[in-house]
Amino acid sequence: MPYDNSAPALGVGMIGYAFMGAAHSQGWRTVGRVFDLPLSPVMSAVCGRDPEGVKAAAGRLGWAAAETDWRALIERDDVQLVDICTPGDSHAEIAIAALAAGKHVLCEKPLANSVEEAEAMVEAARAARERGQLAMVGFNYRRTPALALARRMVAEGRLGTLRHVRVTYLQDWLVDPDFPLTWRLRKETAGSGALGDLGAHAVDLAQHLAGEPLAGVSAQSVTFVGERPLLDGQSGVRAGARNDAPSGARGPVTVDDAAVFHGRLASGAMASFEVSRVAAGRKNALCVELNGTLGSLTFDLERLNELNFYDNTQDPAEAGFRRIQVTESAHPYLEAWWPPGHGLGYEHTFVHQARDLVHAVAEGKGPQPDFEDGLRVQRVLAAVEESAEKNSVYTPIPGSPA
Amino acid sequence: MPYDNSAPALGVGMIGYAFMGAAHSQGWRTVGRVFDLPLSPVMSAVCGRDPEGVKAAAGRLGWAAAETDWRALIERDDVQLVDICTPGDSHAEIAIAALAAGKHVLCEKPLANSVEEAEAMVEAARAARERGQLAMVGFNYRRTPALALARRMVAEGRLGTLRHVRVTYLQDWLVDPDFPLTWRLRKETAGSGALGDLGAHAVDLAQHLAGEPLAGVSAQSVTFVGERPLLDGQSGVRAGARNDAPSGARGPVTVDDAAVFHGRLASGAMASFEVSRVAAGRKNALCVELNGTLGSLTFDLERLNELNFYDNTQDPAEAGFRRIQVTESAHPYLEAWWPPGHGLGYEHTFVHQARDLVHAVAEGKGPQPDFEDGLRVQRVLAAVEESAEKNSVYTPIPGSPA
Amino acid sequence: MPYDNSAPALGVGMIGYAFMGAAHSQGWRTVGRVFDLPLSPVMSAVCGRDPEGVKAAAGRLGWAAAETDWRALIERDDVQLVDICTPGDSHAEIAIAALAAGKHVLCEKPLANSVEEAEAMVEAARAARERGQLAMVGFNYRRTPALALARRMVAEGRLGTLRHVRVTYLQDWLVDPDFPLTWRLRKETAGSGALGDLGAHAVDLAQHLAGEPLAGVSAQSVTFVGERPLLDGQSGVRAGARNDAPSGARGPVTVDDAAVFHGRLASGAMASFEVSRVAAGRKNALCVELNGTLGSLTFDLERLNELNFYDNTQDPAEAGFRRIQVTESAHPYLEAWWPPGHGLGYEHTFVHQARDLVHAVAEGKGPQPDFEDGLRVQRVLAAVEESAEKNSVYTPIPGSPA
Amino acid sequence: MPYDNSAPALGVGMIGYAFMGAAHSQGWRTVGRVFDLPLSPVMSAVCGRDPEGVKAAAGRLGWAAAETDWRALIERDDVQLVDICTPGDSHAEIAIAALAAGKHVLCEKPLANSVEEAEAMVEAARAARERGQLAMVGFNYRRTPALALARRMVAEGRLGTLRHVRVTYLQDWLVDPDFPLTWRLRKETAGSGALGDLGAHAVDLAQHLAGEPLAGVSAQSVTFVGERPLLDGQSGVRAGARNDAPSGARGPVTVDDAAVFHGRLASGAMASFEVSRVAAGRKNALCVELNGTLGSLTFDLERLNELNFYDNTQDPAEAGFRRIQVTESAHPYLEAWWPPGHGLGYEHTFVHQARDLVHAVAEGKGPQPDFEDGLRVQRVLAAVEESAEKNSVYTPIPGSPA
């Protein structure tokens, strides 16, 4: 029984069903049960190359049909929106084809593995936009309620003039030198390492929260573990931990383990970034800090229901960082969830992403972040790589203010 | 399309669709998408008194049918398990009838509004048990992964001999004297106030984590705000905040705002409890601390993905409370979820509750906590009320070791 | 060279030179170097029974002379103020004699080991007060800047009407069953265990911060480790850890390891307390929480430079517990110390205590807490013991409002 | 009365008596009262230009004599050790002269305002070293017990191979554009701004904790507030807050408000730094994180009694950052202080610095950090400035491994 008979259906087809596919499925499955929506998402079909695997995934995750060829999926009549959850090397081809097929597109981040691909995607999205199709990139952390609140507060001027943006995104699953060589550790599939995986989020959040682009960066990156055990076919973070590769066989890691860079925002504020997958003890530590003349904000994804705010206009005798539990009905997305103090989890960002995209489709106006946002991030990542190769020299971001 | 064709169906019928009903629905909807289950839960029907309301709720929450009479619901052939999400005053009648109708039962906490009702429910459950039916009470916080890990560590002896159990459960939604008189503030519907609502969780967790019952208690309770605005029909925490009562009309609050009590566990360990709904700034602060001769554990529901452990066997120069992020695949329930550091939320406790209940039904062996656990809690709550009435004198718990 | 030639001298004589004596010495030595004082404290003489020990202590701690008989010390012409740092069993005798000898008195907490002694001390202090002498009891934690700020905020009405006071004071140095039987574990010297040692602070702070007395209490206490290794002569917490007792010889512990009690303040607010010296991992965890209708405050002595404030009058979308770093010049005592964020330590409470006492002596008024405050605490501790013996029955505090 | 008659005296003469002078005085006054020392520090004389001011300071801070000419002070017979607490522009001249006069020297950080000065100081120190004189630079934070413990743990190999060092040092006293133009904001007196003031600590700690030097850096720096109110004569952080400058008159700020840089350690580990005096809400937030293959450490000066340790060799199910309260007698410097959990403050770092320097003088072997350490820091700061001027290009540190 559909959860709202009066709302027209919006057929969704998803490509890829690993970690991201499972998370997106949870989003599509839940969104209409929690939020009032103008369209009713229907989980029409999922696509994967392995016939057995995709069929099982469809049954498990709740998709009505399974496809093994993404070209078939994007042509289905019961699919109006294509959700791309594959590794970055296939994003451009699929997204451009899906747009050409007249579908709306949601594409996982990073938008692409190169600026060139991202530019082609933006061009395709612009053309499709004129035909009424939408294209969104999956920077889901924007929709963590605490970060949505942060953006709202910055936009309201609560921080005054921004002085510093500081983002670190640290994980530790690559500390173990025997963690296997999954697709995330190969340049040809992942584009880059911690940079594209974690840095893409970090850069997007910095630009989004600040409300302005990076003008340039100075960077270094490093690969500490140069070779890792070979592994066939598997993907995902946990999957790899099982390490069922043949003993002894190792292959070269062709992406970075960590990257660090600093830059300037268009307004002159200072920005600093560090991303790593070898920071022991840091599991998913996306930490954001913004310092402005009127106040500061801090956030840690490991405590995602909290936003800390320092109000610099307060009496110094009573001022202090305030731990806001972002679980009030006055907070973004929270009117639909539980009472105060009953926190949400990681996967809820995908529910919120689905909610906003459905509204955008219904209203015919562009979802944020769009492919241009994705391209902007891609250009920063490219500048980071370029700077890292050129002795860390400050490298302007093409298209950004000087 | 069912998510697993090979697993036999388990039809679920739910009574009540407010806050708890929404949370349970999320549990039933999600559980089979995440966990491998021996039975496939089907959301057959939901029941509520208001025909329009229940129909809308069914559509929204994903139940296949709507009923307005719970007696009809428990008789449905497509319902094998009755999930009771109503206020406490109707638990006994519904649960006993559902068991008599041959159904498994999941009953929200507190089990009942009185020891007598709880005893009758236990008796019904015992009889039904012999017919192969199961009865579970919804102390969902046991299934917070961090608290499940805490229980595992206590059971493994990591704390040594227990000295202290300390539980406080603080909220603040009743600080506002104009918060309306919902069912939760009337003795005839809720049984008691903070005591039954929050204290039931606190007592169950203390006994569950310690692995032993309370022997007796000394208590006081208080109602700070004696009258509140009248309100028609609404329930739930957030609902009431809207306060659409006629101005001026007030009615008496007949339950406690707060209660505090201390007691002894059967082993001689000291236990202390405090519950309140008028603790400004505390949103859902269920804080647990266990101190043993070999170690200590602390937990705060406002940071539900974390468990803090002090290992007293370590070198003092390196000892300290350790913030365990309970998001590893080695942690309870986590093998099915996201990578490390990607936290879960409040509602996941209901997914885990559903998971364990489905396994229990399939295996025909009793789910924990059962109605006896619920009765044990009820007896403690009754002793708390008795002690509070009798000048806080130490009041033994009937059925517990002296 | 005296640090202020123009300020008249105030000769101080101290009795006892163990842990407390060292801390008080640090206070007397430092106070005039940091604060502007109307009198110039001079560390005239220290007293202890062991001639070698006290002489070494005088040299080490900076006292000009050493005495072995406290009666000699209180008669010295260069002593105007007697600072009593001995175990509780000698407080009454020394304080009364010192007052009779015309001296001002600072007496370590707890004021005495019994209500009777405390009453006699109050009587002596009253008589001395008419002769212009002052008597203060050493509840030094009142002078932690964060708690002084807390008191100021309560007095200013920032919390509104108080609902809850919650104090726990947990340590763990008695978890080890082989920690020796120091004077702190014998009723004849210490009066009680965790209760007098930690509970005295907890009760004084609760009454001081709330600005009102406890009306009555319901209590239990427990001794988990009944016998401990015998030890000769030593005192202090760390001293005992060395355990140089003859192997095998054990003696009975005659005080409590832990106590828990709840009560009501005169205004009807609820109060709860727990003190323990067997809470593994808790080193000096004096945690205070106050909840009022307009706001809440929390404090943890293990992070003594911080006070957390929840302002319930704020917009819920931005409300949260605020971590005030109590290191601003606008904070109590801080105008004399370091720049913001440069925290103080435990011993500074003794500097502040000395500062306020010197001012009181110069101005001939105050000081707080006086012996009446000490008696008030003693009466609560006695009621706690009485309640614990009488099945936890609610026991009114003599002299408090019903 | 000297606190230890048998220990030979070590006469100390201090130059400068503002913030740093007060902190050093507290160190010299306290050290012999707490620690067993081979020499007995005597506070012989203090020096400042203002005759009234220095006389008052001598009285207040406890120095036996006052001088107005530092050349006179370093010639005094009762001064064997010269403690330099002036702004950086006079360090070189005074230190070199004091060493030439045969004195031991303790010089506040940064060692100098330029590499050239620092090199001259190192040369003077080397020559003096052959005559048995010692020279130390005042990187006092090395002697925070938690950071001393951190260094010990790194040296013991508890972190394995280092991957990341991350240091941020944030304050906010310059957010206010009307904070006056004190000496700390002028290049001619302070050398640089946040960089020399905060960055010097950050760099020294990174190199000290890692046990290896930085090889090179890439940097940017910024001055957000270009002009500030003029002020006569005052110094210090709090002093300036009073702002008694004539209204309207402003002068140019010639130092940086903030700097950010990343680099590589000799071993190849990545290092990142950020320092700012305009980070609203950050009072004295010196945060350090070290990630190695076997574990990680984190520290925040705003909670200076705590060190957090993640032991990567532990069972993942029980692993987590451990909050070590660095107050155990097994911790560096703590055997002389209070019982566990009784924290120290900022000023104790100066007591510990004095302790170690007195031992070094007595034993005739070099104190750490010596002037070479100071020079090493100075070279990094110079490379930071050079890189910031040259488009952030990676700039090797002279004398460091490539």
UniProtKB/TrEMBL annotation, chains A, B, C, D:
Superkingdom per UniProt: Bacteria
PANTHER family xref list: BCDNA.GH03377 (PTHR43818)
Organism: Streptomyces gossypii
Alphabetized UniProt keyword annotations: Oxidoreductase
Domain Gfo/Idh/MocA-like oxidoreductase N-terminal: 11-130
Transmembrane recorded as keyword: no
Cleaved signal peptide residues: none
Residue runs in coiled coils: none
Keyword Oxidoreductase: yes
Protein name: Gfo/Idh/MocA family oxidoreductase
Gene3D superfamilies: Dihydrodipicolinate Reductase, domain 2, NAD(P)-binding Rossmann-like Domain
